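Re: weekly structure request thread

Next one in the queue (137 aa):
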Amino acid sequence: MGDILTTLMRWVHVSSVITLLGGVIYWRFVMDPSTKKISPEDYKELEESAAAHFRPIVYTVMATLVLSGIYNYLTKPGHSTLYHILFGAKILLALHVLSVTLVATNPNNPRRSRQLFGAAVSGMIIVLISAYLKFIA
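Done, posted below.
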């Protein structure tokens, strides 16, 4: 039963990351540039609608990432000092991604594109750190 739960929690964690980071990258690098060609009124309406639809996904992903992340961390004790340093940096970057994504989905946010760019960069760094942590664990 333990292996099934561990596998399920890892799947939930990875799926949540894919959903959040994929949504941020798509919005910032595909949707945002593509919709700049429409009228400013239509662009604002589309952007506000997208933010309103993305916000509940962000909240759900936040919850699943925290729960599955805590479970994954606690079930694999005994890591090196380097692991804990990088894990701490990963957590700080994850807090940045989550908080910025929440702010970016607020209504009437004129800095949304810039915020999503920062979240995308931080998210990609998190993936890099995670790959290395898996390698040294």
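The chain has a mean pLDDT of 94. DSSP finds four helices and no strands in the chain.
Next request, please.
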